[in-house]
Amino acid sequence: MNSFLALQFTPPDVSFALIAPELIICVVGVVVMLVDAFARPDQRWLTGSISLAGLLAGAAATVWLWLSWGGASQAFNGMIVLDELRLGFTLVFLLVSALTVLISMVWVENEKLPAGEFHSLLMFATAGMMLMASGGDLVIIFLGLEILSIATYVMAGFRRTDVRSNESSLKYFILGSLSSAFLLYGIALTYGATATISGLPGTTNVAEIARRLNDAQYPPLLFAGAAMMLVGFGFKIATAPFHIWTPDVYEGAPTPVTAFMAAGPKAAGFASFMRVFVFGFPFVVAATNKTVSGELHSAWVSVLVVLAIMTMTIGNVAAIAQNNVKRLLAYSSIAHAGYALVGFIAAGAASSIEQRNAAITAVTFYLLTYAVMNVGAFAVVQLIARAGDRRTEVEDYNGIGFRSPVLAFSLSLFLLSLLGMPLTAGFIGKIMVFRAALDQGYVILVVISVLNTAVSAYYYLRLIIVMFFRERTTSWMAPPIPASIAIALVIAVAGVLYLGLFPGQLINALQAKPIVTLSLR
Amino acid sequence: MRQHLLTILILLPVLGTMVAVAYSFAPRRQDDHYKWIALAVTILTFALSLLLVGGVGAAEFRFEENVNWIGAIGARYHLGVDGISLWLVLLTTLLMPIAILSSWTAIAKRQLSYYVFLLLLEGAMIGVFVSLDLLLFYLFFEASLVPMFFLIGIWGGERRIYAAVKFFIYTSVGSLLMLVGIIALYFIYGTFDYAAILAAMSAQPALLSPNAEFWLFLAFAFAFCIKIPLFPLHTWLPDAHTEAPTAGSVILAGVLLKMGTYGLLRFNLGLFPNMSRQFAWIMITLAVVGIIYGALVAMVQPDVKRLVAYSSVSHMGFVVLGLFSFTEFGMQGALYQMLNHGVSTGALFLFVGFIYERRHTRLITDFGGLATPMPWFSSLFVFASLSSIGLPFLNGFVGEFLIMLGSWTSNAIQHSWTATMLAATGMIWAAVYMLWMLQRVVFGKVTNPANATLPDLSAREIGLLLPLLILMLVMGVFPRPFLDRSKASVEAVRARVAAPPTGGSFAGNKPAGAQVEPRDLSFNALEGGH
Do B255 and B147 lie in a common domain? Predict the structure, then answer.
């Protein structure tokens, strides 16, 4: 009785500071919806501006969390955590959303779509992504995933009258629900398996799972649960063989939404995937292959090695055969998930905290660079596609290089960065993940990734070739570049060059070392 | 300024591109002005690069710059120039204004982008030769690909797209594997810095296991052998050379190929001396096969440009042969031959460009008897061809002779004189294909009426050739100043690669005859006692 009372009077473990960025974004989402309801038709730009301001506020809150960094902490009984993984990824999500707002501002206008709804959905999706990175509990991660997914299903089908958009939305919805079911079932099995012999019920807290691994009562159940979660997350980040939905969904969805989906939810998937597997089923130095945690760890790392190789190879080889630019970029995004997995594997196999943090930073940095160059590329694709996404075939890019040099040269820069050429962000990103993997001795894996990079040269160069080396036979007018997209392009170009030339400061920051970085520079 | 000279040399062309782009927004711009901007920038770069000559001579690096670049991954911005890189930097800066002058009338479309890409290429090429940080080296090495890719693809010949893609993918496959090697080296020594790695290697020879050294040597050698190109990896070269615009071919043959041999000398021989000795027989065999194969294929080419391209394969074989002789003569000769090849083959491509500009064909059968309408062209063309063949008193002779001498006296392989004799036939073949081509193009009667009225070289064309022709003669009769500057640096590499470390892991398992010992042949013996 006494102990029961004591339990009752424990003050709730609440910290609003720790979820300030998420709160801000949610509130902004609601505000955008309200403003949209009362705004006059000629004030539609208002919602985009409010969203941008909200994203900036969210970023400011994140930076504040980073500046007051005093080590990893948690709140809400471990439901929300604050660590290097969360901080880095949160900034990635905010950047992706801000760029998406910028490239969609004119688009919603031209397509006569409800701007307010689009922007509030985008805000909610962002909040979902942030929860996926900050959740320290499988339930929170699942909630974040669902908030994100439901908003994205709607956004994919946002152009209601377009059959392709509908198809995209429906496909994404059906397959996404299936993968959510897998994930949820995996969570349930893990909960059941982590019940201990001493009588404690199971747990969904990631850190607690890691503590109980060797105490698990039903190891086979644990393995099944881990496998199911792997399938669920694998679907979200589009690893082969769970990638089948990607090309169709990316091709059909409106281009700004595709840009968002390829950069944001993929990064969010990586954040929680890493949270659950690297932190939940960690490498324990003392564990041998006989113990449950040792077996589980070696099992998922080896599975990921196979998945990474398949993902890179299938993505790159399939991209070669594509004639639609959005499909091509979809397959390229599959390949990039494979490269990021290489860093993920390194994080999983790391034997010390420093190495693990370095590998996580590598993945975060990789996804950041990918987000910048990918959203930049899609911004150009959207402009060239014109209303209704009509011109997205490779043929449509014939000889436009010198007709519209700004668009063509920035697209070439993004493509070269995706390819991983030096002086661009993509190069440093690749160096980071390959370096992390080589550090753990995965030489063959890195060699395969590198050869894949060479394969990818073929299709990235193809677009450049079409733009610059061919002559256009039909007439073509360069599309005017609206101010909002120009800003997005400037940010992306500057980002690609800055991250490619002087990434040192940011890499330090991603490892959440505010004091060190501030004093050094 | 002197301590930032190398950075200035790299950034000046980049700055030039910005000036050109800024000028494109000027209200009364003219497309013809871009080439003047480019010419001014490249001449200024060349003038500044001459300042390097005075400071270099000893084995250590000069004009060093060493600052932190990406602290989080241990990459540094470390530049420096020694006797090996000095002449290659100067070759680059000399060939650039010539390349721009050669495009003066040939390039009419999209001049801004053309000169921007040329200038970017120059910055990257200088960067390759002066980088002392492996990651920085890789960065410039790869960065030089992109402008060349555009130059071939936009301003190239009919099959330019095929050639550009082949060039890009071929060379990037090799260099990406080198990237893995570079990162692997980082994990062994904890740094990307070339000098630091060298120091760590001599301090702790056991750190690098023979197995690791084997793979690392292969990773680096693969990248460089594609770039050189060594015999079985050469197939990208004829296409790229043939389809590139004249300036592109000049730069490609003159400088880009040298990145491969420079890399072999600096990194493969310098960092992996044990494996270099083990691989010497393979490299020498491939080099000799390349010399003979390149020459034989060049002989039957119907296209003058393709002929010159294949002659490059042959000439670069000589360089590799010299490098892997591990003798001072051979290695100095190899370095000298790199410069010779840049000057002579660069000039030959210019000549091909001149007749192509006039006739829009390069087929040997379309010409004949050019000596009558174009006496200046013909006599200078013959001069450059003779330099390429290796006629005594011209530069080609000095380099090839030194290489032969080194390779004959080499202990890198058993019976190295066989390799030398086979390679020497390459010089004969060179005479055959060049003279036969000259006979069909320059001499004889004018068979095609279209050739009868061709205008001779203009003052600009003669002017841009003149520096190269003078260099051919000077380098042929007075090689001392060139060789003296590089001697100490080459000797430092040779000392590393030629002498097996006492008690090293490879001392035991080498065949007796392959034991390389420092030779007491003083280099000055060549010049006569003084």
Answer: yes
* Contact between A454 and B140 using a beta-carbon 8 Å cutoff: no
* Same domain assignment for residues B38 and B119: yes
Mutation for B interface: A416, A455, A469, A497, most B CBs within 10 A = A469
If asked whether residues B346 and B223 sit together in one domain, one would say no
Domain count, chain B: 2
Give the up-direction half-sphere exposure of residue A301: CA atoms within 13 A in the CB hemisphere.
Answer: 24
Domain limit, last residue, from B255, B271, B287? B271
Digit-coded pLDDT (tens) for B456-493: 888 888 888 999 999 999 998 888 888 888 888 888 88
Tell me: do B318 and B187 sit in the same domain: no
**B191 and B283 fall within a common domain:** no
> In a mutagenesis test of the A interface, which of B24, B134, B139 is the best target, namely the one with the most A β-carbons within 10 Å?
B139
**What ipTM did this prediction achieve?**
0.86
Write the pLDDT tens digit of every residue in B286-304. Answer: 999 999 999 999 999 999 9
Domain boundary among B210, B239, B271: B271
A 10 A CB-CB count for B492 gives 18
CB contact under 8 A, B71 and A421: no
Indicate if B215 and B320 belong to the same structural domain: no
A448 chain-B contacts, CB cut-off 8 A? none
The closest CB to that of A504, out of B72, B143, B153, belongs to B72
Cα distance from A97 to chain B (closest Cα, Å)?
A: 27
In a domain, B20, yes or no: yes
In the prediction, which pLDDT does B278 show? 87
Contact B264, B224 (CB under 8 A): yes
What SS3 string covers B230-267?
A: CHHHCCHHHHHHHHCCHHHHHHHHHHHHHHHHHHHHHH
3-state secondary structure of B363: strand
User: Do B98 and B187 fall into the same domain?
Assistant: yes
Q: Touching check for A310 and chain B: CB below 8 Å?
A: no
Q: Decide if B358 is inside a domain.
A: yes
Q: Which is more confident, A521 or B196?
A: B196
User: Is the same domain home to B324 and B416?
Assistant: yes
Give every residue of chain A whose pLDDT is below 70, as ranges.
1-10, 285-290, 387-389, 512-521
| CA gap A180, B417 in Å, rounded | 72
Residue B99: which domain range? 1-271
Q: Is A447 on the interface with B (CB under 8 A)?
A: yes
Give the end-to-end CA distance of chain B in Å, rounded to a whole number: 37
Number of H helices and number of E strands within chain B?
22, 2
In a domain, B57, yes or no: yes
Pick the residue from chain A with its C-alpha nearest to B113: A402
Cross-chain residue pair B140–A422, CB shorter than 8 Å: yes
With a CB-CB cutoff of 8 Å, which residues 405-424 of chain A face chain B? 416, 421-423
Give the gyration radius of chain A's Cα atoms. 23
CA of B490 to nearest chain A CA: how many angstroms apart?
Answer: 30
Q: Name the residue of chain A whose CA is nearest to B170's CA.
A: A454
DSSP state of A276: I
Q: Which residues contact A142 (CB under 8 A, 6 or more apart)?
A: A180, A183, A184, A187
Residue A444 contacts B where some CB pair is shorter than 8 Å: no
pLDDT band at B231 (very low <50, low <70, confident <90, very high): confident
| A15-73 pLDDT, tens digit each | 888 889 999 999 999 999 998 888 877 777 788 889 999 999 999 999 888 888 777 78
* Domain membership flag for residue B526: no
